[in-house]
Write a structure and sequence with these properties.
The complex is a heterodimer.
Chain A lengths: L13 E10 L2 E7 L3 H7 L6 E2 L6 E2 L12 E3 L6 E2 L10 E4 L25 H5 L7 H11 L16 E5 L2 E4 L3 H12 L4 E5 L16 H15 L4 E5 L2 E6 L3 E5 L4 E5 L2 E4 L3 E3 L12 E3 H9 L8 E6 L2 H12 L3 E7 L9 H7 L4 E3 L1 E8 L6 E8 L12 E4 L2 E5 L2 E3 L2 H5 L3 E5 L4 E6 L4 E3 L9 H18 L33 E3 L4 E2 H9 L5 H8 L12 H12 L3 H4 L13 H5 L12 H6 L2 E6 L2 E7 L6 H14 L2 E4 L4 E6 L3 H8 L12 E7 L5 E11 L2 E6 L4 H15 L4 E4 L4 E7 L3 H6 L16 E6 L2 E8 L6 E7 H14 L6 E2 L2 H10 L34 H9 L5 E6 L14 E4 L2 E10 L8 E6 L9 E5 L5 E7 L18
Parallel strand pairs in A: 1-7, 8-14, 9-10, 9-15, 10-11, 15-28, 17-24, 18-19, 18-24, 19-20, 33-43
Antiparallel strand pairs in A: 1-2, 3-4, 5-6, 5-7, 12-13, 13-14, 16-25, 21-22, 22-23, 26-27, 29-30, 31-32, 33-39, 34-37, 34-38, 35-36, 36-37, 39-42, 40-41, 41-42, 44-47, 44-49, 45-46, 45-48, 46-47, 48-49
Helix pairs in contact in A: 4-5, 4-10, 6-7, 7-8, 11-13, 17-22
Chain B lengths: L11 H6 L3 E5 L2 E6 L3 H11 E4 L5 E5 L3 H7 L11 E3 L4 E7 L2 E6 L4 H11 L6 E3 L4 E6 L3 H6 L15 E5 L2 E10 L2 E8 L4 H14 L3 E3 L10
Parallel strand pairs in B: 3-13
Antiparallel strand pairs in B: 1-2, 3-9, 4-7, 4-8, 5-6, 6-7, 9-12, 10-11, 11-12
Classes of the chains: A alpha+beta, B alpha+beta.
Chain lengths: ~950, ~220
């Protein structure tokens, strides 16, 4: 059956664009502009979803995304709300939270046990006996939750975005548009956002029968268009307010971080449901939902309807239904005096019967509860209690409720504003607003259409005045003189216990009464015990009724009872929008693409990408690493060490500064020479190391560890300021590339590219100089980190690739090969050189790491000196030692961080290990208890499988203890 | 400063892999076109991303830096983060009380002479190695692209002022400019982050109907 109405002015659907989509496996047609809820209702599909707990049938309720009745998933996206999901060709969705499909949901049986599942039953029922809790938990997990996450889905990128404005106007209804115009006229940069797809707010559905509404909307939009300092973003929700007018704006594609200077909240109200028996079944909906169906989507909501009213809006709903061809059987008006405006006469003229002082006592379900077939109404006594002994049955397939409103004031709360309950409107209205925040329209308790526009204009001027763009008088807010738009207690008791207060959580009136009886008489406690307002719609349709119930149970006013705070997000936000585009900065050396082209296996070292080793077909990773290391020992290798920190220290106080930063002495360091530098923090813990080269009396060049360079530079800057020293610091890390050429043949290779004399006498071990290498200015250092004759060549990043390729070419006749980080680690381990932060931790002192030799004798001050003086007098608790394994142990070796055990006690841990070495047997470095650190002691290490492996404490360095390889004196 | 070797951009291999045509000017290599000249020009006005990393840079730091620069006939900006033009094109930015960053025009006339004299200078003056990548974001939608990477309101940033902020999580200097009557933003990025920043910003540009352009539509002498 097609419930689509003939074309009407203002409808949002495009009838020329038919759309075919699937829901629960069936195919339907809708129009471009339809949302899923409207399209299904147009196809006379009343059963749209199932409730969370009892799996009760649910249909269209708010048609504004304020309820969670229709939540669907498509296998990729989950928990999409049908009220907001535009239909499109190919859309194929199913309802969440069912077992066996929506129509035959097997979990609907839980509804029959409702008597045994009161609020809090699981708190009480499942905590004993404790041994059964895993069973309960497993069963609960099976039935709990809404949509299912498909873990096979690929991440969908969602842009990050920032925006700025002077005034953010939230809500493009009459008040918001008027406010934006007022502010724009004063020159403010205005951004209007509205979660609906088109502007107009209530003008396009609630006031659609008023001849002036369209004129108002057209007029407002025309005025807006005249200002180029106004932007209008529809389909965008202001999801949350954070400090200083930082507002999260969310649309279909992404989240925008908006920084405004002030905010005008014209968000209107959420229409509230009445509480009566079966008020949740398909066919019972808010009056505003019925109006939206008619005015926006041209869908006839019902064939025969009752309107439950307590305000003028209810009468407008009745008239709209009547105009759409719905047989309005009656208006049940909760007010004894009924409607006082001219609407009463219009309803009478339309032949609609009005029952004053009546309520809907219950909706009568059809078989299976999947739609309603009637309603019973009855009179209310003087205290508002239904006279259930005198029920009147009226056949109908729909009940529209228009009994009241609650402000959409989440942003005001989040910005620090407070609300108070005002009896003249029976609604919460802002009591205080934080500076720079303004409210207008219905959220401000102003309901008349003209009044809303006036209030919006006033608020726009107030915002302009706040920002200094308007200096005139801001008019007062219009007062509300009509009868309240909300009923003070639209809640009808019923023994059937299906009179729902919170549809998300299936909480009915008795649940609140029981909770109150158990002592949960405070609004916050009641919320947490009952879970009211904690479902997907976050209490938009339940919180105020829950507060009314609690207030009545306590015999208190609503202001005495208080309300809960609405926190972000206003509506659900996909996690991918929160994550945004993935920003994971990566650092690459200038030779990175060369490494990749030459089969390097790249690894992350902090943010840096480095070649771990270079793959060779048919060779294992370990074989490749050992081959690269062996080649360096026997021949010549090249490694990209551009990741090293490269710092320049210049100025008259350079020497003094370095002596304070590092543990060593530099005053007598010769120009053109390198020294080892060890840096500690104030507690004497090693934080960095490197070499310190002296280019002139007051100019030094310092390397730092790859991972610690930025921190070390920051520390230097901090100390330079604290000590007020005349030094100039430069961090050239990314701007200079560095290449380490190592191995017995490396001097010959390098000499081919430079005129600088590299002989052992002219450029000995730990020499430093400036040279031209392959026609490029370079800093040249003779170092020995890998334990062989070696040079570090530092060149500008933009010319490094040229130098690298020149070295490869010059080394061709020597069989030069690149080597990766793993080979370098192996080589330095053989040499016993520690790596800060691998072989040391956040507590390691120079004494423990066996580098106390790097502390200058008789130095009166350096960072950490005082602590080291104390530590020096204390016995060591651990020492960095070398370990040797039997060659036959290669298959069962420990890994880094495996623990060393003695007498069932933890006595140390492995810090570095090489399963294979150029020495022919596995070696490691470990932090070990000093009483076990004697050379030749056998220790046991627990490997990941749990077994113990033996190793022998060995002296370091393992390789070339005389340093003859790196400290080559003779000419090669 | 012998450096006869042509300087290459940190993203040169990326542009090579996209088939860009290169030309050497002033000791540096530039991608002249990534597309046809006409297409590049259209993209420039809409939303273009251009690699100008070949432009020579120089830093001077120390108490004597301002005096030394003015002694060489250069006007220096008086405010920190303010910029002004070099005599033959290019930009000089004051980074601090005694620190300046200079980027030359494509012909590298100013810095070549300046750097040679700086090398021999004695006193409280340090030459700072600057190898930043230079990317120029151009076009009517450049602000939208920038807004997807950093949280600065560039509508309120005056011209001739450098903003130091983070673009896609990386520290950058951003210099608002106008080029061919469309807004342009010059990004200075540590070269080690250049590939990451380029790929990220280029992806954003593509999503906004923009794209990569060659330096030929910025400097006609490359054509």
């Amino acid at each position: 059956m097609d419930r689509r109405l003939p074309p009407r002015d203002g409808e949002w659907i495009d009838r020329s664009q038919s759309v075919e989509f699937r829901f629960e496996g069936a195919t339907y047609r809708g129009f471009e502009g339809d949302v899923l809820s409207s399209a299904l209702w147009a196809n006379d599909v009343r059963l749209l979803g199932r409730s969370f707990k009892y799996h009760r049938p649910r249909g269209v309720y708010s048609l504004a995304g304020h309820d969670a009745n229709l939540i669907v998933e498509d296998g990729i996206r989950t928990n999409m709300r049908g009220d907001m999901l535009a239909v499109s060709s190919g859309l194929d969705v199913r309802s969440v939270n069912t077992l066996g499909g929506l129509d035959r949901d097997r979990l609907s049986i839980t509804g029959r046990f409702g008597e045994f599942l009161p609020v809090g039953f699981y708190y009480k029922a499942f905590h004993t006996p404790r041994r059964l809790f895993p069973f309960y938990e497993n069963q609960m997990r099976k039935v709990a939750g809404l949509g299912r996450i498909n873990s096979a889905n690929q991440r969908a990128n969602s842009p990050k975005d920032y925006a700025f404005c002077d005034l953010l106007v939230v809500g493009a209804g009459p008040a918001g548009l008027a406010g934006a115009i007022a502010a724009a006229e004063q020159g403010l940069d205005v951004l209007i956002v509205d979660e609906q797809q088109r502007p107009g707010g209530s003008l396009v559905w609630q006031w659609a029968d008023a001849a002036t509404a369209r004129e108002h909307l057209e007029g407002l939009l025309e005025q807006l268009a005249a200002h180029d300092n106004v932007r209008l973003w529809c389909g965008t929700q202001a999801a949350g307010y954070y400090g200083d007018y930082w507002v999260a704006l969310v649309d279909d594609t992404h989240l925008t971080k908006l920084r405004a200077k002030s905010m005008l909240v014209a968000t209107g109200c959420f229409e509230q449901p009445a509480v009566f028996q079966n008020n949740d079944l398909p066919g019972v909906m808010l009056g505003s939902a019925a109006q939206r169906l008619i005015q926006l989507y041209a869908v006839k909501p019902f064939d025969r309807a009752i309107v439950l009213a307590a305000n003028s809006e209810g009468y407008r709903v009745a008239l709209d239904l009547n105009e759409a061809g719905v047989d309005v059987a009656a208006i049940a008006d909760l007010r004894r005096d009924g409607e006082a405006t001219e609407l009463a006469q219009r309803v009478d003229d339309a032949g609609i019967r009005v029952y004053r002082g009546y309520c809907v006592y219950e909706a009568v379900p059809a078989a299976g509860n999947k739609r309603i077939r009637g309603a019973t109404i009855c009179a209310l006594d003087e205290k508002g209690v239904p006279r259930s002994e005198a029920l009147t049955r009226i056949d109908c397939d729909g009940i529209a409720m228009s009994i009241g409103w609650t402000p959409n004031g989440g942003l005001i709360y989040q910005a620090g504003g407070r609300f108070t309950h005002a009896e003249h409107v029976e609604q919460l209205i802002p009591q205080t607003l934080s500076p720079g925040t303004f409210a207008a329209g219905r959220v401000n308790g102003v309901f008349g259409l003209e009044s809303q526009i006036d209030d919006g204009y006033r608020a726009g001027l107030a915002a302009a005045a706040h920002l200094g763009s308007f200096t005139g008088d801001v008019p007062p807010s219009p007062s509300h003189y009509e009868s309240p738009s909300s009923h003070p207690y639209p809640i009808i008791a019923h023994k059937g216990k299906k009179n729902f207060v919170d549809l998300d959580e299936d909480l009915h009136l008795a649940d609140f009464e029981n909770a109150h009886q158990e002592g949960y008489d405070n609004v916050e406690l009641m919320k947490r015990f009952s879970t009211v307002g904690m479902g997907p719609s976050q209490g938009k349709l339940s919180n105020i009724n829950a507060v009314r119930i609690l207030a009545r149970l306590n015999g208190a006013t609503i202001n005495q009872t208080g309300t809960t705070t609405s926190r972000p997000f206003h509506q659900p936000v996909p996690i991918r929008h929160l994550a945004g585009r993935s920003f994971h900065p990566q650092r690459r050396t200038p030779m990175n693409h060369w490494h990749v082209r030459h089969n390097a296996e790249m690894v992350y070292a902090g943010a840096w990408l480095r070649p771990e080793y270079y793959r060779v077909d048919g060779e294992s990773r370990d074989d490749s690493i050992l081959r690269e290391a062996t080649h360096v020992r026997n021949n010549v290798g090249l490694i990209d060490v551009s990741t090293l920190g490269k710092l320049q220290i210049s100025g008259p106080d350079s020497v003094e500064f370095l002596e304070r930063i590092y543990t060593g002495r530099f005053a007598k360091q010769q120009v053109g020479r390198l020294r080892y530098g060890l840096a500690c923090d104030e507690t004497g813990v090693i934080i960095d190391d490197g070499v310190i080269g002296r280019f002139s009396e007051d100019r030094f060049y310092v390397t730092a560890t790859s991972s610690g360079a930025a921190a070390q530079y920051r520390e230097m800057q901090r100390w330079a300021q604290i000590w007020n020293m005349d030094v100039t610091l430069v961090n050239a890390t990314g701007h200079l590339a560095a290449i380490n050429l190592a191995g017995p043949c490396c001097r010959d290779v390098l000499q081919e590219l430079t005129s600088t004399d590299l002989s052992a006498t002219a450029f000995p071990y730990l020499a430093l100089g400036e040279a031209i290498v392959a026609e490029v200015s370079a800093k040249l250092m003779r170092v020995g980190f890998v334990g062989e004759l070696g040079y570090e060549i530092h060149v500008p990043a933009s010319q490094a690739m040229h130098v690298w390729e020149a070295l490869m070419q010059a080394g061709e006749r020597f069989g030069i090969r690149p080597f990766g980080v793993e080979a370098q680690r192996l080589l330095r381990l053989e040499k016993g050189h520690l790596i800060v932060s691998q072989d040391t931790d956040a507590l390691t002192s120079p004494f423990e790491a066996d580098v106390a030799w790097a502390i200058g004798k008789n130095k009166t001050f350096f960072v950490g000196a005082r602590s080291l003086a104390i530590l020096r007098k204390k016995p060591l608790t651990r020492r960095l030692v070398g370990l040797m394994f039997a060659a036959s142990d290669a298959g069962t070796l420990p890994e880094e961080c495996n623990l060393i055990i003695a007498n069932d006690e933890l006595v140390g841990r492995i810090t570095s290990i090489a399963p294979r070495s150029t020495l022919g047997y596995p070696i490691a470095m470990a932090l070990l208890s000093p009483d076990l650190a004697k050379i030749g002691t056998t220790v046991k290490i627990r490997v990941d499988g749990g077994s113990l492996v033996e190793a022998v404490v060995a002296s370091m360095p393992f390789y070339d203890p005389e340093n003859s390889r790196q400290n080559v004196q003779a000419e090669s | 400063m012998p450096n006869a070797v042509t300087r290459s951009s940190p993203i040169q291999h990326l542009l090579e892999s996209r088939g860009a045509k290169f030309r050497d000017v002033g000791g540096s290599s530039y991608a002249v076109h990534t597309d046809s000249e006409e297409d590049d020009l259209r993209t420039l006005e809409r939303l273009g991303l251009c690699d100008l990393s070949g432009l020579h840079k120089l830093g001077v730091k120390g108490p004597d830096s301002e005096t030394w620069l003015t002694s060489k006939g250069l006007d220096v900006p008086s405010d920190v983060f303010a910029s002004c033009s070099l005599p033959n094109g290019g930009t000089i930015v004051r980074l601090g009380a005694g620190e300046f960053f200079l980027e030359d025009d494509i012909n590298n006339t100013t810095l070549l002479a300046l750097a040679d004299r700086l090398d021999t200078h004695k006193g409280k003056l340090v030459r700072v190695e600057h190898q930043e990548a230079t990317f120029l974001l151009t076009g009517r939608r450049s602000l939208e692209a920038l807004a997807q990477t950093c949280g600065i309101n560039f509508r309120e940033v005056t011209s001739r002022k450098v903003v130091f902020t983070r673009v896609a999580g990386v520290s950058c200097g951003i210099h608002p400019e106008t080029f061919r009557e469309v807004p342009a933003y010059r990004l200075w990025v540590d070269p080690s982050y250049a590939v990451y920043v380029w790929e990220t910003v280029a992806e954003i540009c593509q999503s906004l109907d923009g794209g990569e352009i060659g330096a030929g539509c910025i400097y006609f002498e490359l054509l």
